[in-house]
Specification:
- It is a single chain.
- The chain is of the alpha+beta class.
- It folds into 3 domains: 8-65, Winged helix-like DNA-binding domain superfamily/Winged helix DNA-binding domain (Arc Repressor Mutant, subunit A), CATH 1.10.10; 72-277, Bira Bifunctional Protein, Domain 2 (BirA Bifunctional Protein, domain 2), CATH 3.30.930; 285-326, SH3 type barrels, CATH 2.30.30.
- Helices cover 31% and strands 28% of the residues.
- The protein has helices spanning 8-17, 25-32, 36-48, 72-79, 97-106, 156-173, 235-239, 245-266, 269-277; strands at 52-56, 60-65, 87-94, 113-120, 138-145, 178-180, 184-187, 190-201, 206-216, 285-289, 294-302, 308-312, 317-320, 324-326.
- It has a 7-stranded mixed sheet, with helices on both faces. A 5-stranded antiparallel sheet has the order 13-12-11-10-14, with no helix packed on it. A two-stranded antiparallel sheet has the order 1-2.
- Strand 12 (308-312) and strand 13 form a beta hairpin.
- Helix 2 crosses helix 3, helix 4 packs across helix 8 (245-266) and helix 6 (156-173) crosses helix 8 (245-266).
- It binds biotin (BTN).
Length: 327
């Protein structure tokens, strides 16, 4: 069904649906119950946002090009009628999307609310490490989930996110990302994605899970700061082509919705299986470097809680809760 035009955003949706065909300005004005000048003003506003709209004499407006942005309209275009995302809040530049998501969750935002930014000036990663979030090159977003589960199950959502992003990258860019425990995605042995899961909870119930996702999408090698040059990569570098960030963001969100539903209906087993299949860590000889010790052995699997199990040389099995994994 065609979107009914009532404001600038619905006008944009209508021009997108027309698939490059002109849409009459008079028809749009009649439909919206406004003047043709009002329609023209909305068109001007869209042009200021980076859309190219051509006015074809006697025929109407044609949407010719879309900006490379992560606006709600551009992400929703790829989500179609997928039910998972309830709201998308888009920023040009923020410190970090994480505190914004926490605030939104506390103020009653529903599960499926997404905070996304073109740039983060104080992006942060696990263990309070900085996260490089260059403007317009990646996907920097926090997803609010409100599942009815006890707090100890919340870390499993990091694994749901990892499996979802692997699939989204495969679907959108045709390259295989592998999961490095606990929450890094690698392509060609270099980090392409980080996931940071934070929790708002009562002692026995989760209030909200905030999944922070950073995906390096369209960076070229020279876009990474020097200290990341040897360890980071982007989907573009690895696939050899520029990626539609809005399409990838939509695929990530669709898959998070899909796998969350499977998890809530069928439990952790299907997610654990997919995680292990996509894992770069399982089966490898690794060093788990912790604050006070390093455990060396073969990574053999993850537990229900997402704990990494390592078989050491003396045959003992050690559960690792938090560590940096080195080959
Ligand atoms: C890590 O690998 O240490 C996790 C990195 C998580 C980065 C994302 S980008 C969106 C969200 N906002 C942040 O400040 N961090 C997360």
């Amino acid at each position: 069904m065609e979107s009914k035009v009532k404001d600038k955003d619905s006008l944009l949706r209508r021009l997108m649906e027309a698939g490059g065909e002109p849409v009459s300005g008079q028809m749009l004005a009649d439909e919206a119950g406004v003047s043709r000048t009002a329609i023209w003003k909305w068109v001007r506003e869209l042009e200021e946002e980076g859309y190219t709209v051509r006015s074809v004499r006697k025929k109407g407006y044609v949407l010719e090009a879309m900006p490379d942005l992560l606006t709600p309209a551009l992400i929703r275009r790829h989500l179609k009628d997928d039910p998972f995302v309830s709201d998308i809040i888009h920023y040009e530049s923020v410190g970090s999307t994480m505190p914004i998501a926490h605030r939104e969750a506390q103020n009653g935002a529903s599960g499926g609310t997404v905070i996304v930014a073109e740039e983060q000036t104080e992006g942060r990663g696990r263990l309070a490490r900085p996260w490089s979030s260059t403007a317009g090159k990646g996907i920097w977003m926090s997803v609010i989930l409100k599942p009815d589960i006890p707090p100890h199950r919340a870390p499993q959502f990091t694994l749901i996110a990892a499996v979802s992003i692997c699939r989204a990258i495969r679907e959108t860019a045709g390259v295989e990302a592998r999961i490095k425990w606990p929450n890094d995605l690698l392509i060609g042995g270099r980090k392409v994605t980080g996931i940071l899961t934070e929790l708002q909870a009562d002692p026995d119930r989760v209030q909200a899970i905030i999944i922070g996702i950073g995906i390096n999408v369209n960076q070229e090698t020279e876009d990474f700061p020097e200290e990341l040059a040897d360890i980071a990569t982007s989907v573009r570098i690895q696939s050899g082509h520029r990626i539609d960030r809005a399409a990838l963001a939509a695929a990530v969100l669709r898959n998070i919705g899909f796998y969350s539903k499977i998890y809530l209906e069928e439990g952790f087993a299907p997610i654990k299986m997919l995680w292990e299949e996509n894992s770069d860590t399982i089966g490898r000889k690794v060093n788990a470097v912790m604050m006070r010790e390093t455990v060396t052995g073969t990574a053999i699997g993850i537990t229900e809680e997402g704990v990494l199990e390592i078989r050491t040389e003396d045959g003992a099995i050690r559960g690792i809760y938090s560590a940096d994994i080195e080959p």
